[in-house]
Amino acid sequence: MTQKELHNPQLIKEANDRILRHFTRRHFLKESAMGMGALALGSFLTSCGSGASAAAAGAADVDFALAHPLAPKLPMFPGKAKRVIYLHMAGAPSQLELFDYKPDLMKLNGQDCPQSLLKGKRFAFIRGVPKMLGPQARFEQRGSSGAWISDNLPHLATVADEICFLKAVSTDQFNHAPAQLLVHTGTPRLGRPSIGAWTTYGLGTENQNLPGYVVLTSGGHFPDAGKSIWGSGFLPSVYQGVQCRSEGDPVLFIKNPDGMNRDLRKASIDAINNVNRQEYKEYNDPEIISRISQYELAYRMQISVPEVMNINDEPQYIHDMYGTKPNEACFANNVLLARKLVEKGVRFVQLFDWGWDDHGTDPDTAVDIGLVNKCRTIDKPVTALLLDLKQRGLLEETLVVWGGEFGRTPMMENRDGKQNPFKGRDHHVDAFTIWMAGGGIKKGYSYGETDEIGYSGVSGKVNAFDIQATILNQLGFDHTKFTYEFQGRPCRLTDVSGTVIDDIIA
Amino acid sequence: MGKKKVLLLTISLVLIAVLVIYSTINHPVDYITQVKPILNKNCITCHGGVKRLSNFSLLFRSEALAKNKSGKPAIIPGDPDHSEMIRRLTLKDPEERMPYKHDPLSTSDIDILRRWIKQGAKWGDHWAYVAVEPVEVPKPKPHFFGLIPASPLSWAKNDIDYFVYAKLKEEKLQPSPEADKAILLRRVSFDLTGLPPDPSLAKQYLDNPDDQHYEKLVDSLLASPHFGERWTSMWLDLARYADTRGYEKDGDRWYIWKYRDWVIRAFNQDKPYNDFITEQIAGDLIPHHTDAQMIATGFHRNTMTNDEGGTDNEEFRTAAVLDRVNTTWQGIMGTTFACVQCHSHPYDPFKHDEYYKFMAFFNDSRDEDTYGDYPILRQFSTEDSLKLLKVCDWLKKNEPEQQAADERRFLKTWQMSINSTRADQMVNSALADTKFLTFRENASARFQQVNLDQKNRLVYRYNARIPDGVWTIHLDSLHGAVLQTIPIKPIKKKSDWAIVYTDFPPVQGTHDLYMTYSNPRLKGKLSDGVQFEWFHFTQRFPETGTKENKEIEKMYWELVNADVTGPPVMMDNPPSMHRNTYVFERGNWLVKGEKVQADVPHSLNPFPKNAPRNRLGLAMWITDKKNPLTARTMVNRLWEQLFGTGLVETLEDMGTQGAVPTHKDLLDHLAYQFMYDDGWSVKKLLKEMVMSATYRQDSKVSREMLVKDPYNKWLERGSRVRLSAEEIRDQALSLSGLISNKMFGPSVMPWQPAGIWHSPYNSDTWDKSKGEDQYRRAVYTFLKRTAPYPSMITFDGVSREVCTSRRILSNTPLQALVTMDDSVYQEASRFLAYRMLQESADKENPVDVINKGYEIAMLKPISKSKMEVLKHLYDTAYQQYKNDPDKTRDIAGLEKMHDNPETAAWVVVAGALLNLDEVITKN
Fold first, then answer.
1. In chain A, what residues touch B655 (CB-CB under 8 Å)?
2. What is the pLDDT of residue A50?
3. In a domain? residue A72
């Protein structure tokens, strides 16, 4: 097979489809194609990844596909990014105190919000006429790119030239749960696959001893939309995110029970698989082969997961760089884990950090107090992540995305018509900032602009669908053609919307 | 090649071509099987429900034959040569040729379309949209005009088998022999009750594995109380049942388990499926309905509500109503209707406005995304229930009938009330937490269109701390006539709410009510004076002047204020609170289009004559025997549960884009029998299925057959499917003897790892249940939507946010980790080991113990080679524990009788047994 043929999207799609056809048993997978294509499948797949060599010839492709739903697959076209780290700040951080510098807003500080900004708008908590609230942080232009970054993020400021800012992102959901779902699953309602599930469905994963899609949470709570936000929706459940935990077992039930050592576990699995093989001889059910391989994988995961989830082996300078806190469930530790996971070949790592909902109802949610403290917990680790990925040569192929589910209002929140006790901002759908780095995205670049007070985008406006389309594009997928048949129609992550943001692609 | 040969070849080719054309030319073209697939595949994306490029659509015949943008019709029936459609399909210029920018249609496809137009371009109805008709059972027929009698099909046990056999014959396949008795016993037991068989029942059958005893076994399983529990697990996926409300806070939905219990009882009583559906859709509208029928309407109150701060209540009320529409179609009628929300259906005959006409049936219900989940059916204590009876009896005697009924409803549901979320034009007032109307100093708010006919009393639920507040209600404007001025009494305890009343002089008609509030004691403009939850306009309590009257009234107010809640139920608005329904342009609820009235799609059976245009009428339409979808959907669903795959694989979609039925005649036959012969009895239908020879087949398959029919589409063998999430848990508890047979009641919280629940703004915790509640069947496990029970999700259980028609089974390493390491399975292994030792003939003899263990799980003796493997495992484990008392105690348990290396090793073996493929599979 020539290089050109290898990247023939049609060929690749057919091969990948065929695996899933046998795997998912979905209705569109009607006929079992057992022709020449199937014969070629085994070698084709083993050529592009590890761990996929077993039982991969001829009529055995049924077995193969059942046993390896996460085997590495080629995308539609060569993508610049091979993996993604998505850092979601749940609660939605204020762009006006971090990246979107609006000196003119300061001039309006304390004045009544003009009616023109309120007319026909719906807010979560603002009622009546709120006051304008100027930026509550000092800003400076950073690096040779001159990106505006506030003093809240002094470390990140030093790597401004690695980052591409999207300054005019908008959404149409002003409540947390629906807005988070929109960002990650392409719909504000529950029940559709998350972008990580789509990614592992499309690309499989590079390390068969680890889950392909890992989720890490911090901040004391799950994101508002709960576990659905890393669910597999209508895709097979094997593609859902696996939550790795810093409390208890790193993956649920990964630890052998007390009194059961590793040798005995091995002996047990050997016995189980031996009996299962006898069962297979009798019944020829390919599911049995699959189960045998899943038990083997479970055994390998029992070693590899605790290993990769243990950050204690990292050298001290790395700990210092990330600002980790030993034995604590914190964002910094999760960021270091994210690097370890992508280094080991995990395809999609999703971090959720809860606690960015700065309404100003108490000091912890004040944009000049709580937000500042929250920034301190992410500034060092996020900066370290970019530098560390870079020094390991991983940044070029790893797409890092940072953002919340919406923005914050240039007005000070007046919950139920009363002035809040602290300086806070309400949920805002019209403009917020998301940034990306690595993965073939332009460095030191800023795309899109908001008006003088940061209320709406005036140029380079993008939404969740555009960002999803761009992420998929970097991974090698045309988001309009990357579909899964469900309820009688080919469904896609971006539904019927989305445009790749060509301007930010390096 | 010589000229002669060329000539000969040409002649023969021409001859063949002529023959082919001749044989097909007069053959009538079938729209559904021949034409529609071509149109769906090649044309409808641009010329259908979504896009109608050049104003040409192929969805309905009237549209296809109408004039399009060019001013001419594209199809002229009878005249393919002048039909623009055929011309455009056959052009050479790629700019003009259709399908645009795609490969041209094959000549044979064009030929079909040409002949179809020639024959009049007749339309046809998709099979699933045509009423079920009786089907002839394809029994062998006598030959030679009846001279040679039909040979009876010895394999067949009932009619199902004739249908299956006919297909097998077409596919040149043979049925498989009957499965081994132990396998069949286990299969049918799991299928009907979700559990392994009870030992005595098992013995009865295994001792006499003949047809007669098989039927006895089936009858016993159908009569088991566990039957209802098993089928409820299935139904709850459709009903999207959960114990919490969903979204961010995901708080508890109190008492919704009453609905779950209703479903269990309904299955156990074999409630006819038409009644089963009617009560769930419209139990509240059935004349003289019972409380149970009210609880049944919880089906559509399982929709999520959003208590997140700052949410728009109307948005999430609307989302719930849309969900009811989609669930009704997907779950009960096997049709994907959600696409019609945004545009006419791209493939199926449903128009955009028909979605909203259908929605109108659900859009007039009383629920409004309130914190209290109103309306609820309040669950009184026994003592209070007696009081309730007394009060209602008295009211019946002393009030007009309607008024007494209204009072009774108010006591039981606090309805009909106006939720404070309906307030608008708020000044110095707000919806606290977006749900409770709060007044501050000099506050005002409006309630639109309140009907005051025959009302003279206002009952309201409120909360106030500070005395001297004055609340005034004006009619029609802020300074309009005063209906009443009410001093607000403070309530002592902070968390308490009270329900009190105020009387006012009667005013007729419908009015906008403007409420104002002021209180000189309030400190500053911004401190809260009073909060309201709802307002109930009614009539004064009857006055007879007797002592009894006084007592009854006192009881009445005690009941009104009783601190009880209950499951959410459906209830419709009274005419005075009617809610209009509009088309949402492109599915956007904020862009309202034309106003519509409740109706059903015209392409299906007509709305029954004399049926009311409400949910009850809708239920009558759904369960009408002429409804083509309801019975077929249920038959298909039950079939899928038993055989692993439906007769139409896409349970959620029997439309033109769904899977083609493998055995359409069989589906129709069973659907017909279900409705007309068996009175919608689910148990009879299931019995018919499990009694068939088709069901009883062995599941062994040769490699060759596996290639030929990998998914057993033609049913030439028995099905072999992994057990469901519920069954895997229930089996482990059952085999180990830990299981509790306790039925019904609040959901339970068995052990789960720490850190699963972390919802923001919600302090609910997972409080481990006590005693036998640890070991209840999985159907009773508390289900929190945003953080479901981990092992259930790992085994493909669903989080019940939306209606799920079928679980797609996966096979992952995380499943292995659950059954090997989850404490539940550890405990089950331990108790299974104890049981193996206790029940084996000689517990000193490992062979005996292994045999017993295997027999407990598989109901048959173990093979020699499997025995050797497990014996080896026992020996290995024994060697490990022999010299390690600490590990021994960890694994075998603390009790002295178990704390020995032998038992420890048996726990390891028992654990392996619970992980065997054959054990977690229904074979």
1. 488
2. 30
3. no
Amino acid at position A502, single letter: D
Same domain for A378 and A357, yes or no, is yes
Shared domain for B246 and B357, answered yes or no, is yes
- My answer on whether A242 and A269 are in the same domain is no
- Residue A280 and residue A402 in one domain: no
CA of A60 vs chain B CAs: smallest distance (Å): 10
- Amino acid of residue A327: N
Average pLDDT over residues A411-425: 87
Q: Is position B102 within any domain? A: yes
Residue A125 pLDDT class (50, 70, 90 cuts) = confident
Contact, B619 vs B282, CB < 8 A? yes
Which residues in chain B are closer than 8 Å to A301, comparing Cβ atoms? 813, 817
Is residue B282 located within the same domain as residue B354? yes
B169-188 residues labelled b (16+ CB within 10 A) or e (exposed): eeeebebbebbebbbbbbbb
Q: How far apart are CA B294 and CA A94, in angstroms?
A: 47
B190 and B286 together in one domain: no
Q: Based on the structure, what is the number of domains in chain B?
A: 5
Question: Do A57 and A100 lie in a common domain?
Answer: no
Question: Could you tell me how many residues make up chain B?
Answer: 923
Residues on chain B touching A256 (C-beta within 8 angstroms): 820-821
Q: How crowded is residue A418: how many other Cβ atoms within 10 Å of its Cβ?
A: 18
Interface of B with A in 438-477 (CB under 8 A): 438
Structure token digits, residue B276:
């089963």
Question: Is B826 touching A (CB cutoff 8 A)?
Answer: yes
DSSP structural state of residue B443:
E
For residue B490, what are the domain limits? 400-541
- Residue B817 is assigned to a structural domain of this protein: no
Range of the domain at A267: 262-298
Tell whether A315 and A284 lie within a shared domain.
no
Residues B783, B244 contacting (CB under 8 angstroms): yes
Question: Is B612 inside a domain boundary?
Answer: yes
Last residue of a domain, one of B647, B673, B699: B673
Q: Show the tokens assigned to A67.
A: 């046993």
User: Do A488 and A462 share a domain, yes or no?
Assistant: yes
Q: What is the ipTM of this complex?
A: 0.88
* Alpha-carbon distances, residue B782 vs A227, B260, B504, B764 (angstroms): 16, 11, 47, 12
Q: Which two tokens stand for residue A291?
A: 């189960």
Residue B775 vs residues A112, A224, B264, B754, B769: alpha-carbon distances, Å: 61, 31, 18, 19, 9
Smallest Cβ–Cβ distance between B653 and the set A271, A286, A488 belongs to A488
Of A30, A238, A245, the CB nearest to B812: A238
Instruction: Indicate if B240 and B330 belong to the same structural domain.
Output: yes
Residues in chain B closer than 8 A to A253 (CB atoms)? 753, 791, 814, 817-818, 820-822
Identify whether residues B404 and B530 lie together within a single domain: yes
Write out the two tokens for A484: 């899964």
Given pLDDT bands bounded at 50, 70 and 90, which one contains residue B755?
A: confident
Residues B405, B507: one domain?
A: yes
| Interface contact B908-A260, CB threshold 8 A | yes
CA B582/CA B89 separation, integer angstroms: 40
- Domain count along chain A: 3
Model pLDDT, residue B756: 80
DSSP designation for A239: G
Q: Check if the beta carbon of residue B821 is closer than 8 Å to that of residue A255.
A: yes
pLDDT the model gives residue A39 = 27
Q: Nearest C-alpha of chain B: how many angstroms from A497? A: 14
| Stretch 65-84 of chain B: residues touching chain A, C-beta under 8 Å | none
Tokens encoding B621: 């339409």
Q: How confident is the model at residue A239 (pLDDT cuts 50, 70, 90)?
A: confident
Q: In angstroms, rounded to a whole number, what is the distance separating the alpha carbons of residues B262 and A118?
A: 49
Determine contact, residues B584/B294, Cβ cutoff 8 Å: no
Distance CA(B880)–CA(B886), nearest Å, equals: 11
Both tokens assigned to A16? 């990948």
Q: Is residue B500 part of a domain?
A: yes
